[in-house]
């Protein structure tokens, strides 16, 4: 019993929000952030929580580690961002050892394209393979395919989503 109470005191954020800013920051993600905060949740949102001059990848890894839940907004260009893929790898590592709940939102993308690394995601990973180590790209692909297998929300832009 002592370990569960000590682990809960380590948690700093209710939710870590992972998204590609250029894709969703000014629309969907902003609304999601407001809704979560409106429910009284403490959300790690990079623009609000990062300290000036702080090493970005280290700060994000720490924030992920001290969050109860990660919500990943998977948009068409999510996989083109190395920082998004680094976040995703950290998130899925914690998920695999049952230290975090992961909730994917498939935002205008097909969940099977995430799981199978198809469509725009295939091109993004092909581009990474020309610039990054084989091991790093393999790690990212594994994490990406795993999040594609999870239950989540599919927001396809139809009239019922609005």
UniProtKB/TrEMBL annotation:
Regions annotated as coiled coil: none
Catalyzed reactions: NAD(+) + H2O = ADP-D-ribose + nicotinamide + H(+)
Gene3D superfamilies given in the database record: Toll/interleukin-1 receptor homology (TIR) domain
Pfam families membership: TIR (PF01582)
Broad EC category: hydrolase
Entry's Gene Ontology BP terms: signal transduction
Protein name: ADP-ribosyl cyclase/cyclic ADP-ribose hydrolase
Organism: Gossypium mustelinum (Cotton)
